[in-house]
Amino acid sequence: MNFKRVVITGLGTINPLGHNVAEFWENLKGGVSGAGPITRFDASKFRTQFACEVKNYEPTEYFDKKEVRKMDLYSQFALICSREAVKDAGLDFSQEDRKRIGVIWGAGIGGLDTFYEECKSFALGDGTPRFNPFFIPKMIANMGGAMIAIEEGLKGPNYTTVSACASSAHSLVDALNLIRLGKADVILAGGSEAAITPPGVGGFNSMKALSTRNDDPKTASRPFDADRDGFVIGEGGACLVVEEYEHAVKRGAHIYAELAGGGANCDAYHMTAPDPEGQGAADVMLLALEDAGLSPKDVDYINVHGTSTGLGDVAEPKAIQKAFGEHAYELNISSTKSMTGHLLGAAGALEAIACVLAVKNNIVPPTINFSNLDPELDPKLNFTFNKAQEKEINVAISNTFGFGGHNACVVFKK
Q1: Does residue 1 carry a pLDDT above 80?
Q2: pLDDT value at position 382?
């Protein structure tokens, strides 16, 4: 088959580093940390008392009060970033066949706060079932994508990818394949998450997955550093307008980059730990590059999963060395989670935006908070520590791995 080419024509985000793409990119280049004390609830009794929250968020700046009551925070983030992406792409849906425009949205958890508040209210009551009629539609993980389609009247393919922290990377892989096959002209792909809640923080605390550096939150997310002690939970959303190339050219769209390939596989190893030798991660990168018609030596930059956890931060560099051989020493590696925290199901889409902007602007964002390299890691690898680096970037890939062994990789090129 002759597959159609696929490009990125619009970007949108709201995340701990900014309420839009421009703010996000400036803070990413500048090595700004989005971490700070938790304000969404009283975390004083929790082992971890900080997170990467969206700053100064007021929902009524984006929605009327009636709409706010009908949507969990993760759905609000979905609509905010999709609106920006559509505007950025210059799409006029009145001039398009809405049956050929879809939404594929990623969410690892969905409406966790809604679920928590409703169950808490019932548990603390007298046993009489008084549930909000919007409880179920606010909570379910597919509603973010559904709300985007409802707002814009988009009647093409619409579903949600749920693969833990790989969710929104899988949404991009699926969008790529549907457009390649001619099933759609445009797909709004991305993800959103809002899990900075008592059960979200408490649950990850019980797994000993979160950093407890409460005295210095801004330096807590420190991928590949010997002194790291866990990840920092984040929140927000990210959306990419994925479009068939000829369709984009015909309407005179600005093209950021080509979405050239994608890969997906599974470690099939453990519920929460990666394959310690990184074989699944190595394989998924090679699958994505093969899909893009590229070789490992073509890659200039890898935005790694890099969560600042003991097992993952060791396995992924091993995977890179397996997949890239000697070329691993020629490319740049960085973890933007060192700044944004870990957006769980939205991480893949946000880091895809970082890759797209790296390709467009020839700038590698840094891995901040580095002091001492983990002795298990190869010091010859370029982790782009602490400061952004200017470099010609023709090809960038983004890795995203989720609990359960779910691996996804997407490839962007000029």
Answers
A1: no
A2: 98
Enumerate the CATH 3.40.47.10 domain ranges in the chain, comma separated: 6-257, 260-413
**6-257, CATH topology level:** Peroxisomal Thiolase; Chain A, domain 1 (3.40.47)
Give, to the nearest 10 degrees, the angle between helix 73-89 and helix 143-152.
Answer: 40
Is domain 260-413 given the CATH code 3.30.300.130 in the classification?
A: no
Q: Per DSSP, what are the bridge partners of residue 159?
A: 104
Looking up tokens 């797909």, which residue turns up?
Answer: 187
pLDDT at 9: 98
For 307, the enclosing helix (H) or strand (E) is none
Q: Are strands 236-244 and 257-266 parallel, antiparallel or unpaired?
A: unpaired
Whether 165 is catalytic: yes
Other Cβ atoms less than 10 A from the Cβ of 10: the count is 25
Please identify which of the residues 165, 239, 355, 409 carries the catalytic annotation: 165
153, burial (CB in 10 Å: exposed 0-12, middle 13-18, buried 19+): exposed
Closest to 368 (Cα-Cα) out of 137, 31, 105: 31
Short-list 40, 76, 342, CA closest to 198: 40
- Three-state DSSP state, 110: coil
Over residues 209-266, the pLDDT tens digits come to 999 999 999 999 999 999 999 999 999 999 999 999 999 999 999 999 999 999 999 9
